[in-house]
Amino acid sequence: MQTEQTIRLSVFVGVLLLVALWEIIAPRRPLRDNKSRRWFINLSLVVIDTATVRLLFPILPVALARSAETRGWGLFNLLAIPLWSKILLSILILDFIIYLQHILFHHTQILWRLHRMHHTDLDLDVTSGNRFHPLEIIISMLIKITAVVILGAPALAVLAFEIVLNACSMFSHGNIKLSAAADRLLRLFLVTPDMHRVHHSSIARETNSNFGFNLPWWDRLFGTYRPQPEKGHLEMIIGLKEYRNPQRLTLPRLLIQPFTRS
After folding, report:
1. Pick from 61, 56, 53, 114: which is nearest to 256 by CA?
2. pLDDT tens for residues 129-158?
3. Of 157, 151, 114, 156, which Cα lies nearest the Cα of 136?
4. All residues at 6 or more sequence positions from 1 whose CB lies less than 8 Å from its CB, including other chains
C-alpha cells in the first residue's frame, strides 16, 4: 500500500514538473487568464478530490482488484489465460470504459452539470488535467470499481491504468509545443495536447469531440474524432461561452456550480 502511494505520488509530481517546465520553455499558446489563480484552484481541487476519495472509499480499485483475485471474482479470474494478456486486455477495456463515461458526462444533462466545471478553465495547462468536481470523481470511482470487479482485472493492470491515466491527462492538457510531424506520429498511439485541446473549444461541436484520455483509437472508431479546431490552435477560444468572467470561476463558486441554474 505504501509503495503504491509512493509510486503514484512520484509519477504525479514528476509529470507535473516536467510538463510545467516544458510549458515555460516551449508554450503552444499565450496564456490569457491569471496563471497563479488557476493553479491555486486546480491544485486545490487535487487535494479536495483526493481527500474525498480517501474518506468515502475504504477500499480503492487496486486493493479491490487484489481482493477480487483472491475470491475468484470477475471474468479474468475465471479464464485460464496468461497474466500479460489479462493485464493488456484490462487496460484496453478500462480505457474504453473511461471513453464511454466521458461521452455520457457530456450528453446527460445532470452529469454535464458536474463535468462542465472541467471545461470552465479559460486556459489549458498541466493543472487542467486535474480540474474535476468532487462529485464527478465519486461517480467515476464507482464506475471504475464496478468495472474492476466485473472484469476481475489484475491489480497490476489497475495500478498501471490509474497511473497512466493521470499522467496522460496532465500531458494532454499541457500547453506544450510539438512539431507537426511529432504530433502526427504520437496521435496514432496517444492523445496529444493538440488533439485534446480541440475538446476544450468554446464551439459546442468541437467540445463534443475527441473524448479519449489515453488512447486516440476510440474517437476514430466511433466517429468522434476531430483533427483540428476550426479557428486554429492559436485563435481558438478555450472554455465555455457562458463562463467567461473569472469572478464566477473562484473555487467556492466552482464547487457550487452544479447546483446553480446556469
Report:
1. 114
2. 999 999 999 999 999 999 999 999 999 999
3. 114
4. 63
228 in helix, strand or coil? Answer: coil
Is residue 126 a contact partner of residue 43, using CB atoms and an 8 Å limit?
A: no
Three cell numbers written together for 236:
481558438
- Contact 151/76 with Cβ under 8 angstroms? yes
Cα–Cα–Cα angle for 201, 24, 163, rounded to 5 degrees: 70
Q: Which residue in 117, 130, 121, 115 sits closest to 34, CA to CA?
A: 121
What ranges do the domains of the chain cover?
Answer: 2-257
C-alpha cell at 234: 492559436
Across the chain, the runs of DSSP E, i.e. the strands, are none
SS3 46: helix
User: In the structure grid, which three cell numbers stand for residue 142, read together?
Assistant: 464507482
How confident is the prediction for the chain on average, in pLDDT? 95
Give me the count of residues in the chain. 262
